[in-house]
Amino acid sequence: MARPRRPVGAITRGTTGHNRLRRSDRWITAVCGPMLRSARRPLVVDLGYGASHTTTLELFLRLRRVRPDVEVTGIEIDPARVAAARPYERPGLEFRLGGFELPVDRPPLLVRAFNVLRQYGEAEAWEHWDLLRSGIDPDGVIVEGTCSEVGHRAVWAALDASGPRTLTLSARFDAFERPSDLAERLPKTLIHRNVPGEPVHAFLRDFDHAWAVSAPLAPYGARQRWIAAVEALSATWPVFLRPPLGGRSRWRLGEVTVPWAAVAPLDSP
User: Cross-referenced SUPFAM superfamilies, in alphabetical order (predicted)?
Assistant: First the structure.
């Protein structure tokens, strides 16, 4: 696919804040850490970081604990936001003007893109996924998703050069009443598919049921109830059961990850 010369995309609201993306960053460091450590010269892109440099800096600092020489580039389509962020550059961290075309000097090994596709239609979201996939390292990963204003509810898809691979739901235990409350944070390629007959709807329905039947564990805390619900869900859904994508070490954080194929739209491209 030919790479566009001008920024691709539209300016977002730019809402951001300290630790808003902590849940996804924690997943990235655990799941993508081995990939970053083994790469020769890893480049990470934070796409659409918003009105503040904050979450890009947080990603940079977290990834530097995994790979001390990792390079991170924050990309924004709004020139004013880029200008405001540049005083915070440091060795290994820079900010550039651009969009989904990823204007960097080499294919990134990792792209984090959060809260950037909410304003697009479903078809456009698939197209932007395709454009991002065409620009990453052949062994690279894209983590694309959305989260609540303070980051207590989040859902993201992980993609590689061949397409979407996994879907992860993550929430603070006091931020929901039932798992399907996270449906409002589904990626744009799924959010309108939360209707009867679609796999993602069935998944959330069954997760709610597993949560309900695990209610006897509530006196021991929401964490224990969540772990029991995920274990019950795994009887009928291909929940990842072992690290780094699954197992109690991930579930106790309020996470669950399933293969994308299990929840993909019935008529996905």
Answer: S-adenosyl-L-methionine-dependent methyltransferases (SSF53335)
